[in-house]
């Protein structure tokens, strides 16, 4: 199972490099089901892995000029604030167990995994449907005025909440927002998304200082190294292969996995 898990780390990096999203969608299930990491700790692991991997990918994209820095700040600042608030105040409020009715017990771990599975299902729909760069694009990414900025700030805060709660980067929400609202070209949207994901994830990991003593650092370094190799390969392949062609295939895989995890945690636990 560990060999499959490490192969999954490579695939996770490839996905981030090719389509700019899907990293944590794979990372958390791999950590929980293939390596036996406790779900809450797995979100901390995921924040580090996805954050480091995205940072490497963003550095590569920055060298190619594929990052829109003003939008990175507009979207990223409320995201970081939301990550910090969620990890600090919201996550500790979740009781354990969540629900107990007769013989049915919904633990916090199962609840977080079920919530993550719902996120997987929603993210799969955004991947399966028409790629966002098929929509018409404004030549000026900063056009839209006051409501454009408000929309981006709200989307940023939402993505930060998801990252903080589930350890997911939220690329499946960031990229459509950047392409459809901000009218960025797909290459710039992916690069900008990676910067935001890296900042959010590493902020969340830094906030989880109480979990750092429980981290298996050699394992985390090995997993992260494979993920980084994957994103470097994915970034290289992105120049030759359109990520939009791969997105629907990956989306169907995520959809099946989401329903499987949802069924397992709610009915088989």
- How many DSSP E strands? 2
Largest sheet report: 2 strands, antiparallel
pLDDT under 50 segments (min length 5)? Answer: 132-139
Pattern of helices and strands:
HHHHEEHHHHHH
Mean pLDDT rating: 82
The helix/strand class is mainly alpha
Strand order of the largest sheet: 1-2
Helix content: over 70%
Q: Round the Cα radius of gyration to an integer and report it.
A: 18 Å
How many domains comprise the coordinates? 1
- Number of helical regions: 10
Label the overall shape.
globular
Instruction: Tell me the fraction of residues in β-strands, as a range.
Output: under 5%
Termini distance?
20 Å
Walk me through this protein's architecture.
The chain is mainly alpha-helical and 269 residues long. The protein has one domain (2-268). The chain has helices spanning 2-19, 23-34, 39-63, 69-90, 108-128, 145-166, 171-181, 186-207, 217-237, 243-268; strands at 99-101, 104-106. A two-stranded antiparallel sheet has the order 1-2. It starts with a helix and ends with a helix.
Tell me the layout of helices and strands.
Elements: H1 2-19, H2 23-34, H3 39-63, H4 69-90, E1 99-101, E2 104-106, H5 108-128, H6 145-166, H7 171-181, H8 186-207, H9 217-237, H10 243-268
Antiparallel strand pairs: 1-2
């Amino acid at each position: 199972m560990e060999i499959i898990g490490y192969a999954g780390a490579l695939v996770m990096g490839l996905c981030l490099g090719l389509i700019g999203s899907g990293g944590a969608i794979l990372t958390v299930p791999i950590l929980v089901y293939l390596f036996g990491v406790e779900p809450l700790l797995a979100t901390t692991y995921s924040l580090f892995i996805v954050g480091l991997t995205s940072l490497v990918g963003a550095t590569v994209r920055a060298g190619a000029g594929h990052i829109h820095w003003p939008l990175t700040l507009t979207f990223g600042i409320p995201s970081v604030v939301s990550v910090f608030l969620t990890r600090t105040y919201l996550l500790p409020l979740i009781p354990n167990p969540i629900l107990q009715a007769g013989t049915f017990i919904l633990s916090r771990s199962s609840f977080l995994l079920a919530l993550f599975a719902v996120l997987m299902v929603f993210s799969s729909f955004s991947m399966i449907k028409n790629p966002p760069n098929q929509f018409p694009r404004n030549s000026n990414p900063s056009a839209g005025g006051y409501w454009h900025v408000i929309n981006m700030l709200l989307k940023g805060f939402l993505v930060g909440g998801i990252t903080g709660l589930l350890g997911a980067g939220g690329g499946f929400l960031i990229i459509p927002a950047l392409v459809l609202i901000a009218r960025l070209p797909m290459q710039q949207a992916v690069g900008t998304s990676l910067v935001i994901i890296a900042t959010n994830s590493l902020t969340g990991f830094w906030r989880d200082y109480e979990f750092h003593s429980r981290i298996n650092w050699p394992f985390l370094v090995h997993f992260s190294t494979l993920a980084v190799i994957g994103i470097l390969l994915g970034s290289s392949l992105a120049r030759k292969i359109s990520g939009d062609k791969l997105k629907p295939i990956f989306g169907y895989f995520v959809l099946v996995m989401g329903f499987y995890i949802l069924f397992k945690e709610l009915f088989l636990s």
